[in-house]
Queue: 3 jobs
Job 1
Amino acid sequence: MVDTPLVSVVLPFYNAPFLKEAIESILHQSFQNFELVLVNNASTDESAEVAKSFASHDRVILIHEEQRGVAHAANAGIRASKGQFIARMDADDIAFPERLKQQVEMLEAEDDLGVASGLVEYLGPAENKGFIHYVNWLNTITEADEITLNQFVEFPIANPTTMIRKPLFDSYGMFEDNEFPEDYAFFLRLQSHGVKMKKVDQPVLKWRDTENRLTRTDKRYTQDAFFSAKAVYLSKWLKNHNPFHPQVWVWGAGRVSRRRSDYLKKEGITIAGYIDVKEGEGIRHYDNLPDKEEAFVVSYVFNRGARDEIRSFLIEKGYEEGEHFILAS
């Protein structure tokens, strides 16, 4: 066993039918200066036995976390880790052999880089169009400025692809177990502190979509939970970037957009008015935009294709993303 591994791969698991495949994909990495910390989160199936079968491997550490929840399990793994870099891994997924090598090289090449991620290859049913669309979207976002500008659209990084400098956990805290999705909330917290993030520009992981994913079964991963988490950090971002704080104009006057913007109101943001395809009370047609020198626009329109159309329209009108507007859906 490497006494002081450069990388600690933290792999929490609970009733994980693909665990053996996930573990083997890490043990077969081309980069070998790592330890693999397996965290059994009170599994009730044969997962614990599968993990135990690898425990004699000189790079594997098996620990048990009885308090249920991925945040508790991930934090237990991080606390037990010895590496300078913490690589997250999920029990459903398969890491490509060069993953650790590529991410270590990226972090070592850029001292100001806090998180190295990568693209993903979708692994799941062809009929899961929504998740496939999401994967295709996040694979278009690789550079630090793109990640920052898209932080409120969706989670622009696949959490199990991350490799993080361990001191960031000391500086900004661990994963939190509350009403928010723990991985997205942690990402937004790092973003709020200006932590630079980039991606390897090729797939580092096969990302498996199953019916038992937490994003499908846990209430903390509902759309309302995501938009509630967004509002907390978006309001902080607006305080620092919106010269007209606390006033914003919201693009999207429909019921869903208004409900999402209500979360901003709870965080102290004032809605000056709405922008939409039809005029009405408190609503401007998009051809009658408020002057960019007098207003900041937050777009909550989600319809596929519409988001990019709104971005292109605003840029064509001279609005600069991050300075005059931000996309939040």
Job 2
Amino acid sequence: MKMLKLKMICLILFLSINSIYAQQTPAPKQSETILITGATAHLGNGKVIENSAIGFQDGKFTFVDELSKANPNDFQKVIDAKGHHVYPGFISPNSTLGLVEIDAVSASDDEREVGAINPHIRSIIAYNTESRVTETVRPNGVLIAQVTPRGGLISGTSSIVQLDAWNYEDAIITENDGIHVNWGKSYANKKNKIEPSSAYKKNKKKLKDFFTKAKDYKKNSKERNLVYEAVQPILEGKAKLFIHVHGAEEMTEAIDFFENFGVKDMVIVGGYETYKVAPLLKEKNIPVLLYRVHSLPMSEDDAIDLPFELPKKLLDAGVLVGFENSGDMERMQTRNLPFYAGTAINYGVPYEEALKMLTSNTAKILGIEKEVGSIEVGKNATLFISKGDALDIIGNDIYKAFIDGRDISLESHHTQLYKKFQKKLGQE
């Protein structure tokens, strides 16, 4: 009874706080043509324009070139960004943004479903556009996310959203883009002794039984089954299969397992030991959404800076890489996503290649490269202007951001608190 009262108090406080301060009002549709001039434009596809002109109309890029080739009079609004930097919006894959607000309040936590096999569970239904956490990542350049469920053997289906919308329908870029499987470890640590995992074998058998039945579903079943229906897109090559796995041996087994079921479009998520199987990934054209770069090694035998070196190792092997951020405090940590690229640069990844790991590479991996991921004519005008280097924690100072050409707010409860205590210090 006491626990119930405590939960009710937490829920009331949560609702009260959010009634006082809600998400910033989504920006209206772009109504005038805009030209950004003079900035160093990092296009996200490996190219840089030093003295650039970036124009957009009706939410689409219409002009991307040197300033000398532009006519500012053709645009209704001109933004002088001389000395500053322009980037395409960063993309956060494998994210739980909008699915959990406060970890301690169960009523605000909707990231996982009960049961082990849930391919029919759609994360987009639970996505909350009013999240106060989401608005704290936009000022660091993260404007797009793949909203992904957690838990079980098959967590469910993810969707890709832009981070400034009234509701989830307005937010969607790609609905139901892929299904997420948690492959697990083949070993267990019992009393400081490494042993084969019995759960691993059982789970592998469960997956085999499920996919065997799912593959036979269309041929033999007369009754509708939503769970089996949910995996048909990945069996037919119409959606992606995201395999969450870290071990090299497990990766090899997982790839072989799903190839036997005819799955052609696979992505490794996490992939701590991908550098050990990089030739296999390159050969089979399997991309990687790489485990959080700012982490300690998973094995005590590994070098302390191995996580920092992984982007360079995979880049050198010719594997397509993007950054992901799952782990402790992952929603709040999303704002640090740009700095994973900064660390990768310090460990040998060329600047524009590291940027691609936040933008065009991730867009390709998620299948949204025709819409976003780079600043190119015809694509969605999702971009931002930073006073300095956006991949550096000191230089990342963003004062303008656009999603589909809409001039979005960069205010949050962080900026409100900053202004509040600025006044206090001023008074003192």
Job 3
Amino acid sequence: MELRHLRYFIAVAEEGSLTVAAEKRLHTSQPSLSRQIRDLEYQVGVQLLMRSARGVELTDAGRAFLDQARLALAQVDAAREAARRAARPAKPVFAVGFLSGQEVVWLAEATRALAGDLQNIEMKVSSEHSPELAEGLSMGRLDIAFMRAEPGRPALEYVTVAREPFIVVMPSDHRLTAHRKVDVHELAGELFIGGSEVAGPMRSVIERYLTENGLDIEPAHRVHNLTMALSLITSTRGVALLPSYAENFLPGSVTSRPLKGEAPTIDLVVGYSKTHRSPIVELFLSRIDLIRKCQPRDTQSTGPK
């Protein structure tokens, strides 16, 4: 039994016709294909196909054989690919992490910075929360990460690539959507959604901003990440201060407005380990100015003028 017998049999079984399989998939003559099927049935020792008014149908034995034939070919293909990979020189791996959601803005820029070298590099991309990214850098699982600067990580270095303004995010039919820009004092008395300990850098910026404006707002809920924040805004009709990149992910039930006056900002940084600086990391860092040229779009008001 040869591999071509299995391929021919699978083609006939899937097309339900010797003629169609011969002409459209196998590019051989129908008589030749019929001989190949007869040879296969002789070697297996049972009838696999039978003619009917609708074309060619599988026997019970044919259905059982089909599953195993597909598996056999898949294993052959996997073996072939493994051999080809083994014959190729291994590419160095460049593992890049993104703060969940930021890959929408920054993956293309990271790729562009290495465009001339990517054919010699295997880039692996992951999306996680900032504390997990910091852990990945510290453990050597990641080479660089687009993240927030995490405190208590002396082994990590950070390069700022963008400063994101905070915006007010609220239900689309909230009273504050009538404003082109929202005065932060309007948030007093609203059900406020704040950051948890996990969202440390973001939480610190928000709390400092509220304090500087004379506001003592105790969050009704605290969230770890953007997904949780948007879910709670929808379900509780609360409001939140979020970095402007959140606008890339707002569902129809949620909208945003810029803050009146000087809005607080939070840095997006490229983090890397002091002790895991590979040649690829050095190359990437040497081109960091190309990354800085890409800035998330400014917050645009969609409210009335």
